[in-house]
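Lab notes, practical 5.
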Amino acid sequence: PPACTFLRRSGTRSSAAIQNTIAIALALNGEALVVRFFPNSAGSPATSQYGQQGRCRGGNMIEVPPASFQTTPYGEVDSVALERLRANFDTTRLLQLVGRLDACLAELGGINDMRDELLRLHAMALTVIEGVVPTVPTENVSIWEAAESVRLDLETLSSWIRIAQMTIAPLGDLVPGHER
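Output from the prediction step:
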């Protein structure tokens, strides 16, 4: 069999017509090689992916299965995951996260107030635990009340974080198989 056999050339265009991709498949010593060129990307090098898609059989054309990923303006993504997200993912949920974060931080008095409360609690702990001279006013202040207040604020923030993680997680499923 020949050392190199031309398998297939195909051109695809994304639905947004952003990028034209040309794929050329070759068999080199029996191993399939798919090379993708991005002719509309200035200075963009060709990339290649090696796989076991086909074997060279005496110079015959070998059909290479379609890629399990798609090229987007933000990188390659898993085709199945993308279709699932297109059918079920509401991108406005990401904007809602921003609104919820703003509301959460406003409820806490802002991130600077949280920071100040943690520093205040640290100063109180230094006095109570290590005997350092008090640097925080001691009138009507209880360390355990201050600690509970900070803990509740952190619980409010961590609740938002858990919701944000669940909302964003499906976007992480877009990782193409060859990147796993």
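Observations recorded by the TA: Confidence is low (pLDDT under 50) at residues 1-22, 37-56. Residues 3 and 110 are 66 Å apart (CA to CA).
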